[in-house]
Every structure is written in C-alpha cells, then in structure tokens.
Amino acid sequence: MDAPADLVGRTHRVLRAVAAHEPGGGTTTAVARGAGLPRPTVHRLLISLQGVGLVEREPGSDHWVLGPELYFLGVAAGRRYDVTEVALPVVRRLAVATGESAFFSARRGEETICLIREDGAFPIRSHVLFEGARFPLGVVSAGMVVLAHLPDREIDDYLSRVDLVADFGPQHGAGEIRRHIAATRKQGYSVNPGLVVEGSWGLAAAVFDRAGSPRWALTLTGVEHRFGAERIPQLGALLLREAHALSEALG
Questions:
Q1: Is 200 domain-assigned?
Q2: Helix, strand or coil, per DSSP, at residue 133
Q3: Which of 9, 35, 72, 76 could make a disulfide contact with 13, Cβ separation 3.0–4.6 Å?
C-alpha cells in the first residue's frame, strides 16, 4: 500500500497529466505515460478521482478530463491567489500594441505555468504557449527570465539537479542555459530564438513580488520574421515597461 505522501504525489501527477490533455482529454494510457506511472496504478487513481468529481470521462469516449470539483476548488482558491484580474488588461494591451500573442505566466516551484493568453491581430501565431502549459525553469522565454533573476546559488543548485536536454534537446544544456542567463541579465528581458519549436520566437520580462522575487512573467511570441534585430529591442523595452508597472500593481 502506498504511503500517504506517495499517494498524494501520484495523485498530483495524474491530475497534471490529465490537465496536459485538455480540452479534449486523454486516454488512461496517455495519462499514465504523462504521469510516468504504471497504467494499472493510474487506472485505479482515475476511478477514485472520478468518484469525488475531480476527473470524469468525456461522454461517448474513453478520454479523461478534469472534473467539476476542481473548478469549484479553484474558485475558492482564486479569492486568495488569483492575480489574473490585474494582469489581464496588461496582456491585452501588449497584444493590441504589437499584434503578437501575449501571455502572463506564474512561477510554481521549478516551473512556469501560463495563466493568460491574448492573441494579437497578426494572423500567423505561435502555439508553444497556451493557458495551462507548464515548462521547467530555463525553458521558453518565461522560464528563462524567471531563472535569470534568481540568486546565483539557486541557479547553481537547480542546474546541478535537472536534465533539460533529455526533453528539450542539447540547446538546453547547462552551458547554453547559463549563456541565456547572462544575456537576459544584460538586456533585462529574455529571448527564446526558436529553441523549443523551430521558427517560434519569444521574449519575456519578469514581474516581481513585494520582496523582489520573480514570481510571474509577461511574454510575447510570434514567428521568426516578426522578431528581427531592429524590432526585438523595441518589444523588449515595451515588455520591461509593462512588467515594471505590473510589478508595482501586484506588489
């Protein structure tokens, strides 16, 4: 029998794996693969979670989706943690001003989670980021800029433990990440030159809490030809201005 901590951890992994397959949901096999757990274990957990409304099956299919109970819990938690009401006008303003897709992400442990997406008028868009998408620190421009603004000791500890190359390729080796950190600190904003999906570029600026820690990030993404050498500094300056104002508002 699983220890309580193991059971909670596995349940969390299963719920995250289900969330990664939204909005259409995922099969038991797909959820097990995403959670990194044996299929029989995941099936038992999904049945238990279904019983309390945390997951449910899509009618007429074998796909699992997040259940209504998570929504009600989220509404209750939102009264304490939701910052999107303050961030949404900023994200919309960025999308309108630039024509690109604009995002607001939050740091959660060693990941960034996309909370808001607003598409601009330019018809060709990047689809790397979407609401609910999670990436490790150091990956995509939001993860880069948050990592770059952490203390050196935290960066050293993180890079000594994680292997980003396995999932995101050699362009995410520790040496490359450190070069991005140095460039981000110099510019103030991060640049992702198509490192996750070829041709999909992104810029991000960190948003800080009252203690000066990078808790959130504002991001602009688009196709490569929209992020030329002359335009990147303009977009970066705009992101930094909006991020500074949002830091003050959230602080």
A1: yes
A2: coil
A3: 35
Contact, 101 vs 130, CB < 8 A?
no
What's the CATH number where 11 sits?
Answer: 1.10.10.10
At residue 92, what is the residue type?
R
If you write DSSP's letter for every residue of 71-123 in order, what string do you get?
HHHHHHHHHHH--HHHHHHHHHHHHHHHSSEEEEEEEETTEEEEEEEE--S-S
CA dihedral 135, 201, 95, 115 (to 10 degrees): 0
pTM strictly above 0.85: no
For residue 192, give the 3-state DSSP assignment: strand
Contacts of 155 (CB under 8 A, 6+ apart): 147, 181
**78 located within any domain:** no
What residues does 103 pair with on adjacent strands? 117, 219
How far apart (Å, rounded) are the C-alpha atoms in residues 111 and 52? 28
Secondary element (H or E) of residue 180: helix 174-187
Question: Mind listing the pLDDT tens digit for each residue in 103-119?
Answer: 999 999 999 999 999 99
Rg (alpha carbons) of the chain, rounded to whole number? 19
Residue 63 belongs to what domain range? 4-73
